[in-house]
Design a protein that fits this description.
Blueprint: H1 5-21, E1 30-31, H2 34-48, H3 53-69, H4 71-82, H5 87-100, E2 110-114, E3 117-125, E4 128-133, H6 138-151, E5 155-160, H7 165-181, E6 189-192, H8 197-205, E7 211-215, H9 218-225, E8 231-234, E9 240-243, H10 249-261, E10 273-277, H11 278-291, E11 294-296, H12 299-309, E12 310-311, E13 314-315, H13 324-330, E14 341-345, H14 351-354, E15 361-367, H15 370-381, E16 387-391, H16 395-405, E17 409-412, E18 432-433, E19 439-440, E20 447-455
Parallel strand pairs: 1-6, 4-5, 4-7, 5-6, 7-8, 9-10, 9-16, 10-15, 11-14, 14-15, 16-17
Antiparallel strand pairs: 2-3, 3-20, 12-13, 18-19
Helix pairs in contact: 3-5, 3-6, 3-7, 4-5, 4-7, 5-6, 6-7, 10-11, 15-16
The structure holds nicotinamide-adenine-dinucleotide.
The site of nicotinamide-adenine-dinucleotide has 26 residues, from strand 4, helix 8 and helix 9.
Length: about 450
């Protein structure tokens, strides 16, 4: 039988595809069964809780080092596997996670000392934490969660998003390698080869899991909060950026477009729409289009985008985290490479404005005055109480907006990512507990309060 060149190349392609789909080789911390993962994390936690803080810090330093060394691999893998985001920005996100996620220094003791003795509140670990992670920041969330949870003396079992499992498990293996190299145990974080809704159900109801942490959309947060266990819910947002008449409008245009386009709008804190007061609205849009690489979409293009990026069941996942250029191409519009965002003016109810798209599409809602702008922004945030932003030099306006919108994050006069410690003060996290109120999580969030009372001694004042 003769075989043509084309047939040979087809066979080679099939074999390569099969090899690529083959099971990854056994890695540190990755299991087939959720019960086994939890048992391994429990065993590791028995060691971790006895480790001095100094020994925990050695492990954390090595996790930080390896995260920086692997930042590019993780960024490329994340974009390749999920089809979402921007490699350069994901490298920056990994560096930020490594450098700015708090470790053991975040855990503080409170003391009362007096005639009746000495009382301490010590912050101790929960034990094994069950965590669910999103596909939008997969490895960043796993690394950030593990640093904080481990610093507090816990170990963690992840049920990662199946669409980002390769990237998530690469991070899990890397963290465990870092722990073992620095003298800690393996399995300080665990995961599954094939996480499912069923395996997350096992995790949520397992007797050896003491705390649940969900980072994702409304479905997962509700599931965790209905489990009967203590849950930390880091849910969805739809952050509006309000621009009032006192703002530096040119800078506002630059900050808002920079924040909105970071990692193609995947971060939950990123600007998702603008509400601008009438007197500055035209000027703002002019700067966005003329200086900040925004494409002004006609009504026809907006309609095509609505039909493409939204489906009757919600977001078209093939559009989430894509660049503006790629989204426009999907609706038959070719634009140069410098176009990084899509804009248009619309009512707040416009589906591209009211929906949390996670795409660089930035609709602008015109408000007749500041009061109207606040009302529109509060409506657009949908009561998530997650993130909001404002560009204003009027302290009274900023205060009024902050009180009305009541979000875990409010960035004033800067891009949204300043809230992650990127160009703003403060630490970094990828789990912002908006629904349950812990706010920006860190090691202290993953602790239990314990009161230690020494009666009539140890007060040496
Ligand atoms: P998603 O809700 O689709 O998935 C998140 C995780 O939850 C995944 O691991 C998924 O498998 C799991 N999941 C979903 N429904 C579940 C259920 N009923 N039971 C158990 N597990 C379930 O979200 P995504 O697309 O991966 O991420 C984007 C969403 O997450 C956006 O809404 C974004 O705002 C939000 N997010 C919030 C934060 C935050 O810190 N508050 C951070 C990142 C992302």
């Amino acid at each position: 039988m003769n075989i043509t060149d084309n047939e040979v190349s087809a066979i080679v392609k099939q074999v390569v595809a099969k090899l690529q789909l083959a099971e990854p080789k056994a890695s540190l911390g990755i299991f087939d069964d959720m019960n086994d993962a939890i048992a391994a994390a429990k065993e590791a936690q028995a060691i971790v809780k006895k480790m001095p803080l100094d020994a925990r810090e050695k492990v954390i330093s090595n996790i930080r080092k390896k995260t920086i060394e692997n930042a590019e691999i993780l960024a490329r893998m994340g974009v390749e596997e999920t089809g979402m985001g921007n490699v350069g920005h994901k490298i920056m996100k990994h560096r930020l996670t490594a450098e700015m996620t708090p470790g053991t220094e975040d855990i503080k003791t409170t003391a009362w000392s007096g005639d009746k003795g000495l009382t301490l509140i010590e912050m101790g670990p929960f034990g094994v934490i069950g965590a669910i992670t999103p596909c939008t920041n997969p490895s960043e969330t796993i690394i950030c969660n593990t640093i904080g949870m481990f610093a507090a003396g816990n170990t963690v079992v992840f049920n990662p998003h199946p669409a980002a499992i390769k990237t998530s498990n690469y991070a899990v293996n890397m963290i465990n390698e870092a722990s073992v190299e620095a003298g800690g145990p393996a399995n300080i974080c665990c995961s599954l080869h094939h996480p499912t809704l069923e395996s997350s159900g096992v995790m949520m109801h397992h007797k050896d899991v003491q705390l649940l942490v969900a980072t994702g959309g409304p479905g997962v947060v509700t599931a965790v909060l209905s489990s009967g266990k203590r849950g930390i819910g880091a849910g969805a947002g739809n952050p509006p950026a309000l621009v009032d008449e006192t703002a530096d409008v040119r800078k506002a245009a630059e900050d808002i477009v920079n924040g909105c386009t970071f990692d193609n709008n995947l971060p939950c804190i990123a600007e998702k729409e603008i509400v601008a007061v009438d007197s500055v609205c035209d000027e703002l849009m002019r700067y966005m289009v003329e200086e900040q690489g925004c494409y002004l979409a006609s009504k026809e293009v907006q309609d095509k985008l609505v039909a493409t990026v939204l489906t009757p069941k919600g977001l078209n996942r093939k559009c989430v985290g894509r660049s503006a250029k790629a989204l426009l191409k999907m609706v038959g519009v070719d634009v140069p490479d410098n176009i990084r965002c899509i804009t248009f003016e619309g009512e707040k109810e416009h589906p591209l404005i009211a929906t949390e798209l996670m795409m660089p599409i930035l609709g602008v809602v015109r408000a007749k005055d500041f009061k109207d702008a606040v009302e529109k922004a509060v409506w657009l945030e949908h009561g998530n109480r997650h993130s909001a932003h404002i560009h204003s030099k009027n302290v009274d306006h900023i205060t009024e907006y902050a009180k009305a919108i009541d979000t875990a994050i409010l960035v004033k006069n800067g891009p949204s990512y300043a809230a992650l410690g990127f160009g703003g003060e403060g630490y970094c996290t990828f789990t912002i507990a908006s629904r349950t109120g812990e706010g920006l999580t860190a090691a202290h969030t993953f602790t239990k309060s314990r009161r230690c009372v020494m009666v009539e001694s140890l007060c040496i004042r």
